[in-house]
Amino acid sequence: MGKIRRHPPVKIIIACTRITGYDMEDLHGVLEKKLSAIESISGTFDFSQFTDYYAREMGLSLEKDFLVFTKPEKPEILPSLKLWANEIEQKYARKGQRIINLDPGYICDARLVLATTKNYTHRIYLNSGIFGDVHLIYQNHTFNPQPWTYPDYKQPEVIAFFNTVRENYMKLIHAT
User: Is pLDDT of 175 > 90?
Assistant: First the structure.
């Protein structure tokens, strides 16, 4: 029988998709109040080049970046964090239409996991209507996409950003 161990804390990330030109200062404050200080932000990129999935609701011109938070959290926080993120999206909506989309997840030693409300074959049920999607796996010294990984998460600059987040996470975990 295997020995039961607690999973070490993880690095929380939030993917922020939004209408182009949206000022993120207020939203950053809301996110930091809930989680902790923002440790790093990826480069902002044109999200519209990857999909038109949100076009009907949010428009054709969207941008995206990834936020990483300072304080490690228990991975069990993911379902409640996704529910909270959905509430924030609705709070910032204009005339019932979202202008931001927040996708929380976490990075640990072996993977990047995203929270989602959508069930699919490769997603596991976590809690409260939320599923976990193992979106990237860490093998051969880098994060690697899966067949279901979204195109924007496959970009070399995004992979490099997540590799750096993992490297800093590993230093933090080994220091404690």
Answer: no
Looking only at the bridges linking them, the beta strands covering 11-19 and 62-69 are antiparallel
Tokens 């428009």 belong to 59
Q: Which of 84, 152, 71 is nearest to 115 (CA)?
A: 84
Q: What is the pairing mode between strands 100-107 and 111-116?
A: antiparallel
Inter-CA distances, 54 with 1, 61, 67, 82, 124, Å: 47, 10, 20, 18, 24
Backbone angles phi, psi at 130, to 5 degrees: -110, 140
Report the pLDDT value the prediction gives residue 174, as an integer from 0 to 100.
85
Instruction: State pTM to two decimals.
Output: 0.95
Q: Is 87 left (phi over 0), alpha (psi -120 to 50) or beta?
A: alpha
Tokens standing for residue 22 = 């949206």
Residue 144, classed as helix, strand or coil, is strand
User: What tokens appear for 36 in the block?
Assistant: 């902790």
Residue 176 has pLDDT above 90, yes or no: no
